[in-house]
Specification:
Helix content is 28%, strand content 27%. By secondary structure, it is of the alpha+beta class.
Length: 578
């Protein structure tokens, strides 16, 4: 049924907007179930719009971003493609929702520039500070006295920063390989869906900035206001229709009412047990020589979607999202799709996407802002130490107790705690770095994890984005010391990790936000082979663990299997006839 209209807008007087802003039940679907239907429906209604959908579970405070005002996609350039042969320069593609400079088919302006990683970071910080200055955010959402409180998205940037780019920047001389896909992508989502307080319906929020005058690529014009008004009205009509379709049980079966059919997706381990043993032995050599105290060794499972270029339907990771999330209930799960804008705009941009689907249980950073003092507080919860879940309560409790009693896992955990304390010490107020919880056990669908908690208060002149960038990649998925660990990882793993072990999350313009560690994460890209008439979409999944001198190869190898076993099981299910 349709819920009564609820107006929740923050717009300038000059920006046209619908008279009402409704909320929708969408057939009482969960966010993970709704997202594939929402993406396909919106793309079918307007295939030329930049529907760069993103979903964050955000530990039970979900948000779905719909149509970014501005998005940044970052690509690595080989030396031969660098302008003036400048090192460490990336291609940054800005996609602006600005009708005054728009592409004829898409009503978007696409601007390419070349900049360093640090310049891109400063660009994002300047953009965020300019938008925070307008004070259009909801003050009630920022009155946080308990610094353990979880923040919610209310206006800012959503996206991911991959492992490869962060590791490469940490040790440029090591020539760490970067995957042929976006290194990072962030979007300013001023149009988004969140559940209401009772979590019984979804509400659309539309934010407008008052002081958008920081750069020429972010200037609201009358044309932009008009274009946004048209988009919002169209979007509300699309959501009304989708809500009716999903909620009306008397309708005959339609594409919208059916579960999206998925065929088995087979991912094969790229290493045999012998390959893992060889990499493990080399890791031990580095540890015993004193290069590192701990090295996070991971391995890849890989497969692909294969599709004829003449076919209308392209298999996508998003179709597997409902089943994967039902299986894992991962607190920091998320999904993001980045449209391929590296070449001339295509009509089928939605079929040329990089997809990121995460079932991550691990928090990287939570940033809270105390609205009374203006101070930012940070919390991180590294995972180190894993045991499988048991087949019955007795066995499950035994595994849990084994993890509690494990001196080896405690040693691994405290190494990463010390690394993160050191990372935060560069940005924190002196004396504010604390460890309120050490070696806690948290249980998930397939494993028990040992988790510690570290908190700090940021220096007043430190922007949370600087902390995020400066602390990547996360210590729990590199080892310690971090710089040497990423160099050894690059040598031993022999393949780029891509987004895996990077971070996915959001940063509100006021500096509050939440970011995960991209473990238990799938990624897919599109590679077209026009000679063979096929469009291949490689899909990869990784798993690993921290190796110390006390590690046992068989146990570490089994831990990899425990971490991805349930995901592989879901992917191989066949519901194409359902």
């Amino acid at each position: 049924m349709l819920v009564a209209p609820h107006l929740k807008t923050e717009q300038t007087a000059s920006a046209p907007s619908p008279a009402t802003q409704p909320s929708w039940r969408f057939g009482d679907l969960s966010a993970a179930e709704l997202l594939p239907k929402l993406q396909r429906y919106l793309c079918a209604q307007n295939p030329n719009a930049n529907w760069q959908l993103v979903w964050l579970n955000n530990d039970g405070r979900p948000v779905i971003g719909l149509l970014p005002k501005m998005s940044w996609s970052v690509y690595y350039l080989s030396d031969s493609k660098l302008p003036n042969q400048q090192p460490n320069i990336y291609k940054v593609i800005k996609n602006c929702r600005d009708g005054s400079h728009s592409h004829a088919k898409t009503n978007q302006a696409i601007i390419s520039s070349y900049m360093s990683y640090s310049d891109w970071q400063e660009d994002l910080i300047a953009y965020s500070q300019a938008h925070n200055a307008d004070n259009t955010y909801d003050k009630n959402s920022l009155s946080i006295e308990d610094h353990d409180e979880q923040p919610s998205y209310h206006h800012g940037l959503i996206g991911f920063i991959g492992y490869d780019i962060a590791a490469y920047e940490l040790s440029p001389a090591a020539k760490i390989q970067l995957a042929a896909q976006p290194c990072a992508a962030l979007g300013h989502y001023d149009i988004y869906l969140t559940p209401n307080a009772e979590q019984t319906s979804w509400q659309l929020t539309i934010k407008d900035s008052v002081t958008d005058t920081d750069t020429d690529t972010d200037t609201d014009t009358d044309t932009d206001d008009e274009q946004k008004g048209v988009l919002v009205k169209a979007l509300i009509s699309y959501l009304d229709i989708l809500d009716k379709e999903l909620s009306n049980q008397t309708l005959e079966k339609s594409v919208l009412e059916e579960s999206f059919k998925t065929t088995p997706l087979l991912l094969n381990a790229q290493w045999s047990k012998r390959d893992y043993q060889q990499a493990f032995d080399k890791t031990q050599n580095y540890l015993q020589q004193g290069d590192c105290y701990q090295i996070n060794l991971t391995q890849q499972w890989q497969g692909s979607f294969n599709q004829n270029l003449t076919d209308n339907v392209t298999p996508k990771l998003i179709d597997y999202l409902p089943a994967l999330h039902r299986n894992t209930h991962a607190p920091f799960a998320g999904y993001l799709a980045v449209n391929d804008l590296t070449s001339e705009m295509r009509v089928d941009t939605q079929d040329h996407q990089f997809e990121l689907l995460s079932c991550s249980p691990e928090l990287f950073f939570t940033f809270n802002k105390d609205d009374n003092t203006g101070k930012h507080h940070i919390r991180t919860k590294p995972i180190k130490g894993t045991m499988p879940r048991g087949l019955n309560t007795e066995q499950d409790n035994a595994y849990k107790q084994q993890l509690i009693d494990s001196e080896k896992d405690r040693a691994e955990n405290v190494m990463i705690v010390d690394l993160l304390r050191n990372d935060l010490g560069k940005y924190a107020k002196i004396g504010s770095v604390k460890v309120p919880q050490l070696f806690a056990i948290e249980s998930f669908s397939n494993v028990h994890h040992m988790v510690s908690t570290i908190t700090a208060e940021l220096k007043t002149d430190t922007h949370p984005l600087a902390v995020l960038f400066g602390s990547l990649p996360a210590g729990s998925i590199t080892g310690t010391p971090k710089k040497r660990a990423v160099e050894i990882i690059s040598e031993l793993e022999g393949a780029a990790r891509g987004a895996y072990c990077g971070t996915l999350g959001y940063m509100n313009f006021d500096g509050s936000g939440q970011w995960n560690v991209l473990i238990r994460t799938l990624q897919a890209n599109t590679l077209s082979n026009h000679k063979l008439g096929k469009k291949e979409r490689p899909v990869s999944l990784w798993a690993g663990g921290g190796i110390t001198v006390a590690s046992d190869c068989n146990a570490e190898y089994q831990e990899c299997l425990d971490k991805v076993g349930n995901l592989l099981g879901v992917l191989t299910q066949d519901n194409s006839d359902k």
